[in-house]
Specification:
single chain; mainly alpha; globular
Length: 88
């Protein structure tokens, strides 16, 4: 019995960091989130709930948004993703 409990605790301790890992924003994810926000009521609480679905904070999303605005290469990648979304 104790052996099974130890195995369960070790397994949970190894899986916990994987389950709680934050998402990394990619151009595709950014466009997906942005599209959801555009059809929402644009209230801060709504925006927060949208980004939370993707394991992000609103601050992380807004920082990435600023990065997109200032980085021409990243802006081009986001533009390509928007076109891909429009094709589908």
């Amino acid at each position: 019995m104790i052996k099974h409990c130890v195995i369960a605790l070790v397994t949970l301790s190894l899986l916990y960091p994987v389950a709680c890992k934050k998402s990394t924003i990619t151009p595709k994810l950014f466009v997906t989130i942005q599209n959801e926000m555009l059809v929402s009521d644009m209230q801060p609480a709504t925006k927060e709930s949208i980004v939370a679905k993707y394991n992000l904070s609103l601050k992380e999303y807004e920082e990435y948004e600023k990065k997109v605005e200032s980085d021409p290469q990243l802006k081009a990648e986001v533009g390509k993703e928007r076109l891909n979304c429009m094709k589908q």
